[in-house]
Structures are given as C-alpha cells and as structure tokens.
Amino acid sequence: MANFKGHALPGSFFLIFGIWWSIKYPLRYACKKNKKVCSFGSKVGLQRLEIIEGATKAVFALIGMIAEQFVPDGPHLKLYNSEEKQWSHLMNWQHSTMYLFYGISGVVDIITHTTKAVPVAIDRMMLSIAVFVEGFLFYYHVHGRAMLDVHVHLLLLVAVFGGALCIFLEVFHRGNIILELFRTSLCILQGSWFWQIGFVLYPPGGGPEWDQMDHSNMLFITMCYCWHYAFSLLIVAVNYGIVTWVVQTKMKNGESLEMELLKSREREEDSEDEI
Amino acid sequence: MANFKGHALPGSFFLIFGIWWSIKYPLRYACKKNKKVCSFGSKVGLQRLEIIEGATKAVFALIGMIAEQFVPDGPHLKLYNSEEKQWSHLMNWQHSTMYLFYGISGVVDIITHTTKAVPVAIDRMMLSIAVFVEGFLFYYHVHGRAMLDVHVHLLLLVAVFGGALCIFLEVFHRGNIILELFRTSLCILQGSWFWQIGFVLYPPGGGPEWDQMDHSNMLFITMCYCWHYAFSLLIVAVNYGIVTWVVQTKMKNGESLEMELLKSREREEDSEDEI
Amino acid sequence: MANFKGHALPGSFFLIFGIWWSIKYPLRYACKKNKKVCSFGSKVGLQRLEIIEGATKAVFALIGMIAEQFVPDGPHLKLYNSEEKQWSHLMNWQHSTMYLFYGISGVVDIITHTTKAVPVAIDRMMLSIAVFVEGFLFYYHVHGRAMLDVHVHLLLLVAVFGGALCIFLEVFHRGNIILELFRTSLCILQGSWFWQIGFVLYPPGGGPEWDQMDHSNMLFITMCYCWHYAFSLLIVAVNYGIVTWVVQTKMKNGESLEMELLKSREREEDSEDEI
Amino acid sequence: MANFKGHALPGSFFLIFGIWWSIKYPLRYACKKNKKVCSFGSKVGLQRLEIIEGATKAVFALIGMIAEQFVPDGPHLKLYNSEEKQWSHLMNWQHSTMYLFYGISGVVDIITHTTKAVPVAIDRMMLSIAVFVEGFLFYYHVHGRAMLDVHVHLLLLVAVFGGALCIFLEVFHRGNIILELFRTSLCILQGSWFWQIGFVLYPPGGGPEWDQMDHSNMLFITMCYCWHYAFSLLIVAVNYGIVTWVVQTKMKNGESLEMELLKSREREEDSEDEI
C-alpha cells in the first residue's frame, strides 16, 4: 500500500516490538543479577514469554499480509492479470512477501520454544533471515523512483542490514545484552522511520508536499535519520533505567516482580491501542 | 552450455546435495543427542559417509566438465582458435573452471577423511573457496547481457556468496547445526534457482519468451527468488521434522537406525533418477 | 564551518585523544604484566580515569556543537528559514549531529563507570555507533562537491569505518591490546588528516590553491594519506616504547608509578594547550 | 616501474615468501603432532626463524624501494618538479609507499620476536595493515587506464584484500593452520599473477600485444586468474604432502629434522637465485 497507512502499519509493529524489547531485555538482565527476587527469571516463565512473542509476531505478519492483499485497491490474491498480460499489484505482493518471512520467523519461534528437538539458536537465525529478506526486497523495490523517495528507503536499509547482522551475531553470542539492546534500538529506529517516511511521502491532512528533487531536502533527511536514532537510543536508555531502578527497589522490599511484569504488559497493550 | 540443459544439470547437482544434507545433518544432530540407539553416529561410519560424499561431488564435477567440453557445440578442449585469432567457447571454459573447483573440493574431502595428516577443517575451507570461485566467475560472466538475464544471475550470487561466507564460518564453528542447516537451505535455493533460470531464459516446449527489458518482470523475479527460499526453508524444515520423528520413534523401539539410513539413501537415489 | 578552523578543531580533538590513548593503553598493558609496582593498575584508579576521559569527550563534543551553532555565520539553533522556504546552514547542523553522538558516547562512558547496573561493554558499543554515524553523515555530506574535496573526505572514511569496526570488535574482545593500539593509530590518523584537509582546501596564509580537478593531485593525496598513517604508527610505536621503558625502569627501582602518571597527564594538558 | 621488470620483481618476492610459507607451516604443524623427533619445534628455533623472516621481508622491501627510486627514469627521491609545477614520478612513489609498509611490517616482526615487551599478535596486525595498504593504493592506482590494464590489477585486489582479511583473522586465531595455508595460497597467487600482469601488459621479446579493449580477453583473463589459484593450491598441497611425508619418515627413523630444515632453506635460496 503506497500510502500513509501502508507505512504507519509496519512502523507501529516495529515500534511495539522495539519498546517491548527495551523492557524485556533489561528486565531479564537485571533479574539474572538478582536471582532471588525475580520470579520472572524462571525458565518456564521465559519460555512462555518467548512463545507469546512468537505468536504475536506471526499474528502481526498475518494482519500485514491480509491488509496488503485485501485493501480495496489490492491484488486480492491475484498475481497475474492475463487480460493486460502483466503482473498485477507487484508492490503489494512484495510487501506480503516481507510479512511472510516475519510470519515464518514467528512460527519458528513458537516451535523452537515448545519442543526440545530443535536447537534454540534457530529462532535468531530465522529472524536474521527475515530481516535480511526485508532489506533485500527493499533494495530492488525502490528502483526507478524519485530521488527523495529512493533515499528515505535506502536510509532504512542501514537499520535493516545492521539489524540482520546483529541478530546473526546473536546466533553465536546468544543472550549478549549489548547485542540485544543494539537490536532493540535499531528496531525502534525502523519503526519511527517508517512513520517518518509516511509523513514525508504522503503528508497527511493535505500538508505541503516535499520537493523530491531538492538536494538540501536529502541532506536534511539524512541528518533527521540520525536524530531518530538518537531518540531511539534515548528510549532504550530511559526504559533500561526505569526497569533497573524498579528491580533494585523490589529487591530491597523483597517483593515479587510478578505484578510489575503484568503492568508492563498492560502498558504495552495500551501503546498498541493508541496506535 | 547456454541452454535449458546447461542450467538444469548444475541445478540438479545442487538439489541432490541440498536434499541429502537436509537429511544428513538433522540425522547426525538427533543421533548425537540419543547416542545409544544410533549406529549412524559412529566415527568410522561418518567418515565413510564423508568419503562417499566427496567422491560423489568429484564425479558430479567431472560429469559437468565433460558435458561442457564435449557437447556438440563445445570447445573439445580447444581454448584458442588460431584461425580467427580469438578465444573459442569461453563460456564453456568458464563453466568447466567452476566445476573444476568443486572437483578439487571433492578430492580434498576424500583426502581429508582418509588420512590423519591433514587438518579436518580443510574440507570446509576448500568448499568455501569453490563456492566463492563460482560466484566470482558468475559476477564477470554476465557482463553485457540483457537486463533480466543479468538480474537472474546476480540474484544467484546472494545465495552463492552467502553460502561461501557460511561455509567459511564453519571452518571455525565446525559441526554447528545452525550453520549447516543454513548452508543446506542456500544449496537447495541455488539448485531450484538454476532450474528457474533455465525456465525463464530458455522456455522449454516453445513457451512464450520473457520480455528481457520489462521492469515489472525484474520486480517479479526478485520476489520469486524469495519464494524459492521460503520453499527451500520448508523442505529443510519438513525433512528435519521427519528425521527427528523417526529417530525418536526408533529410540523408543530401541532398534538400530541402520535400516533407516539405507532407506534414506535409496530415497535420495530415487530423486536422482527423477531428475 | 567550512573553513580552516572548522577542520582544525575536530582534528585537534582526535589528535589529543589518539596521543592520550597511545600512552594509556601501553601503560595499562605494561602494568598488567608488572602488577607489583604499578598503582595505576588499581581498579578504582582505572575507573576514575575512564570517567575523566568520558567527561572530556562530552566537553569536547559540547565545545564542537556550540562552535558550529554560534559562529558568526552559524545557524544559531535556527533550522528552517521560513522566509526563503529552505533549510538553513545544513552543514553546521550535520557537524553538530556528529558532535552530538560523540557527546552521547561521553555521557554513556560516565554512566557505565559510575554505576554497576550497566554492562561495561556498552561504552565501546556507543563509541562504535558514534564513529559510524560520523562516517555515515560524511558519506552523504560531500555529495556534489569538487573532485579533490570529495576525495579527501572519502579517504577519511577508511579511517572512520575501520575505527567503527575495530571498536565494535572490542565489544567482544575487551582489553585486547592489539585492537586498542589499532584504534589509537586510526584516531591519530583521523586527527592529522583533518588538519591536512584544512591545509588542502583552505590554504592558510593565502598560499596557492590546489587544483581541485587535477588527477595527479588525487594520486598524491591518496599516497599522502598512507604517509600520515605511517607517521601515526610511528607515534604509537614511540610512545609504546617510552612507556614500556619507563615502567620497566620503575619496576627495577621499585618506585611507584603514581608520579609518572601525573606527569603523563600534564604532558597531555600541555599538548592540549599547544593546539 | 611500469614495465615487465617492475612486475616481475614484486612477483618474485611474493612467490619466494609463498613457497617458503608452504614449507614452513606444514613443517611446524607436522612437528607439533610429533614433538619428540623435531628439534624444529623448539621455541628458540622458531623465534630465530621468525626474526630471519622479518629481516628478509625488510631487505626485500628496501630493495624494492631503492629499485623504484633509482632506476634511470625514476624520481631519485624528488617528489615535486617545481619547474613544471607538478608532481614527478607519482607511480614510483606509490610503489615505494607499498614497499615501505612491508618494510615496517618486517621491522615489527623483528622487534616482536626479539623483545617480550610487545604482544606477539602485533606482527600479524602490521602485516595485515601492509597488505591492506597495498590493496588500497592499487585501487586508486589504476584509475583512468585501459580496460584490460584496470581489470588485471583489480583481479589482484581479490587476493590482496582476501589476504588482508585472512591475516587480520590470524590476530585472533594465531597458529590456525587453515588460515596460514589460505594465506600462503593467496600469497603464491599474488606472486604468479604479478608475473602474468607483466606478460600481458609488457609482452617480453616483442611478442604480439594484447587488445586492451577486447571483451573476450577480459573474460579469458578472469578465468586465467582462477587457474592461477588452482595452480597455487596445487603447489601448497604438493609441498604439504612432501613435508608431511618427510617428517613421518624421519619420525620412524628417529632422526633429527635439523638437517632437513637446512636443506629446505638452501632450496629456498636456490629459487631466490634463479629469479
């Protein structure tokens, strides 16, 4: 969907996952150091969490695929227009393919954490492949469009391929908090940048259009991308700080973190509702 | 051989190896975890298997080289046409060179697993080099052809260089099941994509030709490549599931896996016959 | 600030840090081997040092940002010129963004070494990101300028991306003296190259201008870059030699290194004053 | 020196080192496994060998630099021709710079193995830098020449950057026989390719010139490069086989390998004389 909503949808998905990760990983890290107080750190609890995460990913991917296929001007599962002798709605099909691989990654997550027959690192490998495929399709996707349009999408590729590489490294360094936070920050960057692309290419509310060929617009957008990343780092840092502070406070009070975890989940659902 | 058969031949080689690996590596992984029941896991058995695999690789490479050299319009080992003062049949010679390196890799496999004087990781290093050389030659191979022709070959390079990198990593992480399955999936992708190239560039049965300069064809082909990979992942996953299920059933029955292994080999030969 | 001072300022920052590192890392390495004599090697002392270093980095970044914003022809925090309907002073804003990320890195350094809640490797990760962002912005920064101007900036990218990669590796190999010395040499290279860029593009004292389109100038500048690196390696080697010699002499005399450390700090401040 | 000798000289240097390494590393590997019989494996002996190797490297680099500077049409240490207001003999200066970094690497080798104050991995790091600088200068070196000329030099870069990467990995995996053999094969490839470049661009004995713009020449040369590598792999394999066989025979006879080592050195010097 080459319109505002078509960028806001994936943007929201990435933002939700990024913000969730920015709570989950610091929480796990803090719990690992203070084993007594956290019931969160239990193996069964973590596994259940991973399964829920995988299922959410798969559902998001399904929503994305259905949206791309069955919007009014979508392909409705029709790939080849035999009357006009040409492919129909290739853009929507490409987006569907991107969602498909995230869906596979979600399913693999569920399988990995429900059975013991599969090596756990497979979930990271598959996520890395999904992210790489997204970048791979984007790379050819924007061929032949206006300069600014191409540029904003290519900038996205830095986050995408950076993320794919980071997740691939996690196959070998599983549970490395540095890589997990790095991935989180790139995920939030991707999410917020999708929204930015929507605002730049399809100004909502009939705002003024951006001059697609203006060189200074390109320079500004590149810099803007860095600001998004600084902002993304800030979110990760703030959430890290809050989570660590809460865990340490709990540790002193000797209370269970169970409740806190529930709250954080609710908060997550709230942010989901907002978007 | 720039025709349908010239792409179907290597495609079949890669498919056979890919499907074989998608049985072998899950089998070894399942056996490692259930050591009692598997006679497959024995060191001598595995070594013999590696030698057979190496010999098969070398034979396939030899068949490929002979086919490229002695087809009716081939070079018949003649490199320079001194009458016309120019190189003759450079394409066939380039293909022969690609096969040559796979042949070397096969020979190195055999040597590695028959003598103890050679470090074992050499087999992966040599395979990585062979795959890299294939990609290296392909990269310059397609210089100056039609757009779609170039594009379908360049897409192949993603699988080829990805494979070379993955195998190079195996030099340091030998026996890592994640890397082995990743390599397997890329190998199947290469095999099926060779068939796809054949169908696109030389439609068999006098089908309609593809418009080589149509931009939407390029977009479709890129997406199609991703579908091939999704399909390849499916094959690996299904075979992994079957193998794991069989091993676990056997484990319960306490029977030897010897018979199963024989069957899997037969199945492989069947699929070889089909192609 | 596209003038001589605008290049001399960051150049001096990098030189100061590079030369400081070329003393610090050999000193720590020598002390680790001769634990008895060095009070420098104490954990608390090292931590305090890291905090001072982080604070210095943050202050340098702040100076850079203020200089870029409030020079007479600077943007004075104004981003959009609504009269002329275009972005104003984008160059200065880009430079400010580069400094911003180094500033974040400095702040993260301080946080990392004052609290135990944050994994230590975060400081390297953030520095790696800061260096990468510098390179990323430079890459698009020079779009559309004269050939020599582009070339001298692109050469810088080799040191920048090399540095980013090296620091990223330090996340996994923290305290590896080889990587630390390599980073040091690249940092000095960057510093001296910024000065060189200033001299080439804005010859001070009304010297003769360089012909921006002359091919032989490009060849010379490329070679000159290598000489700068050879020079940078020499500085690192000489400082390494002096530090090691001093530590070994002290070891024999059994004196504390405390004094020496103080001196090295003073020496550093001197070189700061000079620039 | 843009002539046949200017390519034969570095080619010979690389060949000598490559062939020497193809004896040294298998010898060390075989000796490590059969510790009793080899006096070669002694620490002091190995260290002395490394020092000799470093000194040889430095001397070769010095010969190269002097040759580039003081050939009849060389720059004779003059960099700027102030009469014609342009740089003089930039090519020779670039070659000198390449040799310079190999010289530094040789000196670093000597320092590393004579004192204990320097971490040993520095020798690999410096060699990696030297190889990278060679590739870096070559990349810009060939700008604006004829197609075939550019192509044969760019092909060289595959071996050069591959070698730089391989040696960089050795910093972390020192003594890994796979990487050492890989480096050896790339070194021989570089050596033989320098000779090939000489024959292609400056056919000795007044042979027919190659058509620099013929596309099929480019295709042939690319393939030829692969054959050189196959040949290089063969040399490494044969030398590996001979060395291993000799060591195993000696082991049975219980004789010292001292004599064998002397012979191999003499053989090396012979091949040096020939060239």
Automatic annotation (TrEMBL), chains A, B, C, D:
Cite the entry's keywords alphabetically.
Answer: Membrane, Transmembrane, Transmembrane helix
GO cellular component, alphabetical, reads: membrane
Q: According to the lineage, what is the superkingdom? A: Eukaryota
Membrane-topology annotation of the record: Multi-pass membrane protein
Residues passing through the membrane, by range: 6-23, 125-142, 154-172, 184-202, 218-242
User: What is the annotated localization of this protein?
Assistant: Membrane
Q: Extract the InterPro entries matched here.
A: DUF716 (IPR006904), TMEM45 (IPR042127)
- The keyword Transmembrane helix is assigned to this record: yes
The entry assigns this protein to a family as follows: Belongs to the TMEM45 family.
What is this protein's name?
A: Transmembrane 45A
- What organism is this sequence from? Pelobates cultripes
